[in-house]
TrEMBL record, chain B:
Entry protein name: Tubulin delta chain
Main location per the UniProt record: other
Annotated keywords: Cell projection, Cilium biogenesis/degradation, Cytoplasm, Cytoskeleton, GTP-binding, Microtubule, Nucleotide-binding, Nucleus
Compartment(s) where it occurs, according to its Swiss-Prot or TrEMBL record: Cell projection, Cilium; Cytoplasm, Cytoskeleton, Microtubule organizing center, Centrosome, Centriole; Nucleus
Domain (Tubulin/FtsZ GTPase) ranges: 47-246
Isomerase recorded as keyword: no
Keyword S-adenosyl-L-methionine: no
Cross-referenced SUPFAM superfamilies: Tubulin C-terminal domain-like, Tubulin nucleotide-binding domain-like
Length: 475, 450
């Protein structure tokens, strides 16, 4: 079994991250009844004997759980969020040595985050990452969680991405990025996002974009279901993907519901690497199968079901409904409609008691309505994990490499250009050492060419592509 | 003579474990209709071929298990030990912590060379236990990363280290609707490279075996275990002892005999397998078969290119003799021309079975005389509880259509260069892809013009 390290950067990154750790503990607690530190736990947690004073060498490999420490690095340029985590119920899961903080924050300025803090803290970051990697037997993947609109998550987060590529080139980098909505309260968020996009396109192996607006919609939809009609009374509250019930955390905070969705998505993504199943899907298989061209590595994710009904009896129609829902635009974590755009590849990670025949049946059923690119008509990658998430008997995470992401990018570019044409707020960035006008022009041209690549693929949609002419052999 | 089996990747290890199970069960169940001496000769021959005896009488399979991650191997070893009759050797397995990620280039260019020494060492130890080495039997799949990529590399190493030994590769072809998106690339790279180092490639298609499970064996929810059991049964029916024509002792060199009959030309190495009858355990007790019936069915399956005994097209006939050469080119496309056929008959009254139907020159390509092209092995011992069992190993146009399908899809994907960067980053260039495509088009052309 392999291990993964989570790097959470900035306020958003750390808040989502702390929900992730809380829910991960909840999930393992419900599966691991005997309290033995097994392979599944070791993929995200270390087992530590806190009585020993040598903190670098106090890992215990097997046997009973003593004290679990998360394989994580927490980075923030202001102390508020990280301090809150350290004073909250999750304090024992983190080591004080895993944190990198500063006092004054990045002022919502990508340049400050990336250039100033990026260079100041580079050595400390490398040191921290190296230590986290050394504690791993076989490190497979780095998960970076951050937002795109601010200064720290966006700027310093992408600087960390560069560091990961330089220091650990063989380890896969999967980035969860929260994109700003149109009504974002940070005025310079388009600048920050576009500057960060360029780094993501060039240095990440795979990006899972998330939009706040979609999360809000899903939260509203669940609350609506909870409060309406007779169905409302039957929803198991602890099973909704927005619920943190059963975790360590006591009260629910405002963004918690939305962050729980992202945390659940990450848990499902890594489930096949942590738990056993009849068709395992490792993390490196995800990047191998879903990224046909190196720059087009933006994957649209969707979760289903959003909640379970208290009714225990699940006929197979509900199972099929789960598959159909995963492809509807209400369940996507970004504002997009994959069914009406072009699929390049699609992966289905199924958890719980679902058999190969159910999976095959549903793929056959859904295939005709989903447009796939001509050279990948059967582009499905599937994984079956036998352990379902807490409160569900089965669940599905769909990851699609679909041209519908380009609508998010086009909107972002439009908002960027509105500000950039007027040169609004530009001086804040150009004052920073190392920052020049060319950074902006290069970033926006990188975004434009990315959009163009998606456009070219879209142009092939619906055209009857003739098979490429085969090689002719002289007989 | 003994055969050393090398199980590569998840698929190879799972099927390998089922195969040894089948062989062990078959050898231990005595055949009521044969004299005791016959039983003993069969069992001694099979035992020597597949198992070695340790100092304390423990029976170990002559096998090396290789995979890049530990879960499948440990499952195979523990399941074998539970049977009580045989087990895998204690030092016979090799595994790492992280898989190949469905990437052929990773398996072939990185994991292969990195672990070559350790794996070849394990194989050498197994070879040294054999009195006389009859050859290697490598089991793998084509779609993934380890079995296909690393398996191909190890086959190459075996060819280099043991240049005079026979190497038979058993390759599982994936479901057409896909389990892995890049399976067609992996398949193209595997077949083109294996052709150079392996002596023959024995093929099983997941789609076909799945249909056998569904329609003939009536299994409702088919699992990979069911599929593997069927494949193991078919393989066992080929590898267990039998008499070659006119022999008075069980054949000592099965791989050599197989190659001699089946692979007369290096351009034609793809072997297909058909085995009848195939049915659920429940129906076995109530069915009776005759040799003429079985052989007639098998012959029609060969001619009409049927994958199993149901749904055979009886309309297809071989071309009538004496047709002028020009017209032969337009003969019935659905007719399956053979290069060589091997019949293996096991069971009661086997000596009475008349295989003359397979000597018909119309079945074969014009440049090989049927006397050489068709051979039969027999044994009166029943196999795996089937009173009569007939297997056909065929070097013919059986696999032409599936192969063409795989190459077509891979070529389409390659035309847009999708996923190619994943391979180039590990050392397989676009040139290598083109070489592989060329090699396979050559093979397709050769088989088409049989």
């Amino acid at each position: 079994m392999t291990q993964s390290v989570v790097v959470q950067v900035g306020q958003c990154g750390n808040q989502v991250g702390s929900r992730f750790w809380d829910l991960a503990l909840r999930e393992h607690a419900s599966v691991n009844k005997k309290g033995i530190y097994d392979e599944a736990l070791s993929s995200f947690f270390r087992n530590v004997d806190t009585r020993r004073s040598d903190e670098d060498n106090n890992d215990i490999s097997g046997g009973k759980i003593r004290s679990l420490k998360a394989r994580a690095v927490l980075i923030d340029m202001e102390e508020g969020v990280v301090n809150e985590i350290l004073q909250g119920p999750l304090r024992d899961v983190f080591d004080s040595k895993q944190l990198i903080t500063d006092v004054s924050g990045s002022g919502n300025n990508w340049a400050v985050g990336h250039k100033v803090y990026g260079s100041t803290y580079r050595d400390e970051i490398v040191e921290n990452l190296r230590k986290a990697a050394e504690h791993c037997d076989c490190l497979q993947c780095f998960f970076v969680i951050h937002s795109m609109g601010g200064g720290t998550g966006s700027g310093l987060g992408t600087s960390v991405l560069n560091v990961l590529e330089d220091e650990f080139p063989e380890v896969c980098r999967i980035v969860t990025s929260v994109y700003p909505s149109a009504e974002d309260d940070v005025i310079t968020s388009p600048y920050n996002s576009v500057l960060a996009m360029r780094e993501l396109t060039e240095h990440a192996d795979c990006v899972l974009p998330i939009e706040n607006q979609s999360l809000v919609d899903i939260v509203n939809k669940i609350k609506h279901m909870s409060h309406s009609g007779k169905l409302g009374a039957e929803i198991k509250q602890s099973s909704t993907i927005i619920s943190g019930q059963g975790g360590i955390k006591g009260q629910e905070k405002p963004f918690d519901a939305m962050n729980n969705i992202v945390a659940n998505m990450l848990l499902n993504l890594t489930s096949s690497a942590r738990f056993e199943g009849s068709l395992n899907m490792d993390l490196n298989e995800i990047t191998m199968n879903l990224v046909p061209f190196p720059r087009l590595h933006y994957l649209v994710s969707s979760l289903s079901p959003l909640y379970t009904l208290a009714d225990v009896n699940v006929p197979s129609r509900r199972l099929d409904q789960m598959f159909s829902d995963a492809f509807s635009k209400d369940h996507q974590l970004i504002h997009a409609d994959p069914k009406h755009n072009l699929y390049l590849a699609c992966a289905l990670i199924v958890r719980g008691d679902v058999q190969v025949s159910d999976l095959r049946r549903n793929i056959e059923r859904l295939k005709p309505s989903l447009p796939f690119v001509s050279w990948n008509q059967e582009g499905w990658k599937t994984g079956l994990c036998s352990v379902p998430p807490v409160g569900h008997s089965h669940s599905l995470l769909a990851l699609a490499n679909n041209t519908c992401v380009k609508s998010t990018f086009i909107e972002l570019k439009d908002r960027f250009m509105k500000l950039y044409k007027k040169k609004a707020h530009l001086h804040h960035y150009l004052h920073v050492d190392g920052m020049e006008q060319s950074c902006f022009t290069e970033a926006v041209s990188s975004l434009s060419s990315l959009i163009e690549e998606y456009n070219q693929l879209d142009a092939t949609k619906g055209l009857l592509m003739t098979d490429a002419q085969r090689l002719n052999i002289a007989v | 003579m003994s055969i050393v089996t090398v199980q590569l990747g998840q698929c190879g290890n799972q099927i390998g474990q089922e195969l040894f199970n089948v062989i062990s069960n078959d050898t231990h169940s005595s055949c009521g209709q044969c004299p005791k001496t016959e039983n003993e000769a069969y069992s001694v021959c099979s035992q020597e071929r597949f198992f070695s005896e340790g100092r304390n009488g423990a029976v170990s399979a002559r096998a090396v298990l290789v995979d890049m991650e530990p879960k499948v191997i440990s499952h195979a070893i523990s399941t074998a030990a539970k049977s009580g009759r045989w087990k895998y050797g204690d030092q016979s397995s090799f595994c790492q912590k992280q898989g190949s990620g469905n990437n052929w280039a990773n398996g072939f260019c990185v994991h292969g060379p990195r672990h070559e020494e350790d794996i070849m060492d394990l194989i050498r130890r197994e070879v040294e236990k054999c009195d006389r080495l009859g050859g290697f039997f490598n089991m793998m799949s084509m779609a993934g990363g380890t079995g296909s990529g690393m398996g191909t590399y190890i086959t190459q190493c075996l060819r280099g280290t043991y240049p005079h030994s026979f190497i038979l590769n058993q390759v599982t072809w994936p479901y057409g609707t896909g389990e892995v998106i890049v399976q067609n690339y992996n398949s193209v790279l595997t077949l083109s490279h294996l052709y150079q180092s392996s002596d023959a490639i024995l093929v099983h298609e997941n789609d076909t075996v799945h249909k056998i499970c569904a329609q003939l064996m009536n299994i409702k929810q088919i699992s990979f275990k069911d599929v593997n059991k069927v494949i193991a049964h078919q393989l066992g029916s080929v590898l267990q002892p039998a008499y070659t024509e006119g022999a008075s002792e069980y054949n000592r060199n099965p791989l050599g005999d197989l190659m001699k009959s089946m692979v007369c030309h290096p351009e034609y190495k793809l072997l297909g397998l058909r085995n009848i009858p195939q049915m659920s355990e429940a129906s076995l007790a109530y069915s009776v078969f005759t040799w003429p019936g079985l052989l007639k069915h098998l012959r029609q399956m060969l001619i009409a290119n049927a994958k199993m005994e149901e749904g055979v097209d009886w309309q297809v006939r071989p071309p009538a003799d004496g047709l002028p050469l020009a017209e032969k080119g337009t003969r019935n496309r659905r007719f399956n021309t053979s290069l060589a056929n091997l019949l293996i008959l096991r069971g009661k009254d086997v000596q009475s079975a008349d295989t003359g139907g397979f000597m018909d020159p119309a079945l074969y390509t014009s440049w090989l005389p049927p006397g050489v092209a068709s051979s039969t092995w027999r044994t009166p011992m029943s196999f795996n509880r089937y009173e009569k069992s007939a297997t056909l190993v065929s070097n013919s146009q059986f696999l032409l259509k599936p192969l063409d399908g795989i190459v077509g899809k891979a070529w389409n994907m390659f035309a847009s260069r999708a996923y190619v960067h994943q391979y180039t980053q590990f050392g397989i260039s676009e040139e290598d892809f083109l070489d592989s495509f060329t090699a396979l088009e050559q093979i397709i052309a050769s088989y088409t013009h049989l």
